[in-house]
Amino acid sequence: MPCANHIVFSAFFVTVKGMRKIVLVLFVAISLNAFSRDGTDGIRGSITKVLKKAPGREADYSLYVLNGESTIYSLHENTKRVLASLSKIPTAGAVLRKIPVTTRFKTQILGGKVTDEGVLDGDLYLKGGADPGFVSETMWVLVNNLSRSGLKHVKGNIVVDDTLFDKNYISDSRQNVRVDRAYDAPVSAMSFNWNSVNICVRPGEGAGKDARVVLDPPNKYVQLVNNAKTSKDGSKLNISVERKPVEPFGDRLEVNGTIPVGYGEKIIYKNISSPTLWSGYNLQAFLDQRGIKVDGSVRDGKVGGNSEVLAEVESWPLSSIVSDMMKFSSNYVAEMLTKHLSGPSEDKVGNMKEGLDRIREFIADAGVSKSDFVFDSPSGFNRNNQMSAKDLAKVLESIRDDFRLYPEFLTSLPISGYDGTLKNRMTSPNVQGWVRAKTGMLNGVIGLAGFAGRKSGQVLTFVFIYNGSADMYKVRDFFDNLSETLVL
User: Fold this and answer.
1) Angle between helices 389-400 and 88-98 (to 10 degrees)
2) pLDDT higher than 70, residue 176
3) Per the CB 3.0–4.6 Å rule, which of 269, 299, 373, 378 could disulfide with 91?
4) C-alpha distances in angstroms, 115 versus 142, 153, 155, 288?
5) Strand 222-226 and strand 212-216: pairing?
6) What is the pLDDT at residue 40?
7) Measured between alpha carbons, how far is residue 31 from residues 46, 50, 164, 253, 279 in Å?
8) What are the angstrom distances between the C-alpha of 23 and each of 5, 9, 12, 446?
């Protein structure tokens, strides 16, 4: 313990008038903060100095830093605070502890017998295995695998089976107000490209001309209305996109505003309203590219009893999926993995309630009393999740003490100055690469929590949380400055 008093006993032999006697010498060494041997003696003073420049009220901050069992610094550490995306720390820990890190999720295409002429006289089924990372590249591999079966013509429909999870696509754990931004995307056992579409906008050939708009990926699910125009060079970018569900299926994207000549490209991300149909129509588009004709339409359903697997593809291992969730703070991935925590199978539907129960158990196992925290959202996309800085540090320490999951957890965290949500933060040579931490942000909430390495070889655990009305970006920069005091 760096702040403890140490009493050191030393014994040695002396000779007095020919006689050997043992002389016991007592050295008392008082080890105070200013003289601690672990190299962290200056941290308290440095934090206190930096704290004087903190935006807003000191009472709105909760700070906790520890080195093993030794508390280095604490401020309002027992006060419960809104966590925002720091909530993904216990979510990641629970997932890595309860699901093998090598787990891969399968997406399958099934159907009846394909004739020698390459005809399937019936429906083609797309069955979701709830792969959070099922994207265009994965769809391409799946369809490429299917093409080797010799299939050329489907006389029936494309039927999308998402029955591994429940039909509650928008979790009750989210904020009540829905938005069409990608971070509020629906969650289904059959999902594609994070259930979001990219709208790529470029200027036309000259001022006054229509802007060029491309959807990625293009498919029949999305209807595009392009009202955007090209403005003169040097004018302000003013592009907006509004998504509206349309009947009988799909979404309409209306692109409005202006983009200057010579601007380059502006990409806007919007979620979609029906993940199953979105996945099915994208499958149809990829089949078209490989020359596989489908006579029917796309609909929801369940795999027929006489169907066999025609093609399948596996996800990246769980450890990589958790890394995607943490590096980019993906709410969508957090909810997908939480439903996996509920243990879905052919006989049991994956659901949010049981998944959240597993995360709460994980927090309690870390030594946090169930009465001391509220955890209703695996992503932190609400204002209900609350925990103190000290208790969140207990969760981090419990992960650090479990070798089965700590290496993958540490690798999943954004690295200061290098990647994820910390790519453009703490970029100075003194701190770049020395902090691995999860970020958090909601209106009135800023968080940063994880691990800070020191050149001495020590690794400190820290939790910084702010709940208040100060400028969020100033608080974020302040937390970066605090992190630097831990590294130096």
Assistant:
1) 30
2) yes
3) 378
4) 20, 10, 12, 19
5) unpaired
6) 66
7) 19, 25, 59, 66, 64
8) 23, 11, 6, 60
